[in-house]
């Protein structure tokens, strides 16, 4: 099989790297600090904005899976040099560039999100993510690189911890039968990207030439509100009904004084105050990956969190 380079070892990078190993590929993971040994995965420590070193790490690779991201509050400053570096590495090595994208670039939209919508974000984080893909797509169109982007909504599932809206703030209290808080309207329909489905899509597009040159929405299940998801999670956990409360604006404001992450969430509050529904028909029509049934997503997530919380850390 072939060598794949995975940039970043957060939830998506780790899931993608481990799936590639399962499929028999050699995997090299690039992170700033490196990590300890893991079966089938070579970990390399380097600054991914160093284009020369990144290209060296990617030499001989069939694909570079770009799953890395700067800290949330530093996207505007640090995303452009990261994109420039990874595009340069893809050009120098000939590896297919597989970018993990998100939905911020569309900005607020009435109706389901499709890939044909313009990238019309007004916020800084949305604009910088849109510009990153546009830079890669332009190089692809010029024949200098081969690139594809997989766009996902909010991550959910095993491996998703502090950054997930149905993860660290929800699962520990839910498993104790305690109330949980929602960022916006807890009854607004919302699309959730199940992490294993995102990883499967990132792996699939790397080897599908007909996928290259455009962005795709990862296969996504039916949109369910925070309250509906909490109800399903609590039912699977056997904790009984769990109350879901909208986080008061005053609480958010106070938290923002101490948390850069909470401060930055203001830009994308619209995604939780109104319906936020992803249409992944285009990808599912042409490729093999499909969204895992919601009940399976819920069961795997509850089991993973139970094991995590039961294991001394």
Strand order, main sheet: write it out: 3-2-1-4-5-6-10
Please estimate the helix content. Answer: 40-55%
Strand residues, percent? 5-15%
Shape: globular
| Major β-sheet annotation | 7 strands, parallel
Number of helices: 12
Structural class by SSE content: alpha/beta
| DSSP strand tally | 11
Rg over C-alpha atoms, rounded to the nearest angstrom: 19 Å
Question: Uncertain segments of ≥5 residues (pLDDT<50)?
Answer: none
Average per-residue pLDDT, rounded, comes to: 94
Order of helices and strands: EHEEHEHEHEEHEEHEHEHHHHH
Oligomer: single chain
3D structure, described in words:
This protein has helices at 11-22, 51-58, 75-93, 124-141, 171-175, 195-206, 226-237, 249-256, 260-264, 270-273, 281-286, 294-310, and strands spanning 3-7, 26-31, 41-45, 63-66, 96-101, 147-151, 154-156, 180-182, 192-194, 215-217, 244-246. The strands form three sheets. A seven-stranded parallel beta sheet has the order 3-2-1-4-5-6-10, with helices on both faces. The chain is 40% helix and 15% strand. The protein is built from twelve helices and eleven strands.
Task: For the structure shown, list the relevant keywords.
313 residues, alpha/beta, seven-stranded parallel β-sheet, two-stranded parallel ribbon
How are the elements arranged and paired?
Elements: E1 3-7, H1 11-22, E2 26-31, E3 41-45, H2 51-58, E4 63-66, H3 75-93, E5 96-101, H4 124-141, E6 147-151, E7 154-156, H5 171-175, E8 180-182, E9 192-194, H6 195-206, E10 215-217, H7 226-237, E11 244-246, H8 249-256, H9 260-264, H10 270-273, H11 281-286, H12 294-310
Parallel strand pairs: 1-2, 1-4, 2-3, 4-5, 5-6, 6-10, 7-9, 8-11
Helix pairs in contact: 1-6, 2-3, 3-4, 7-12
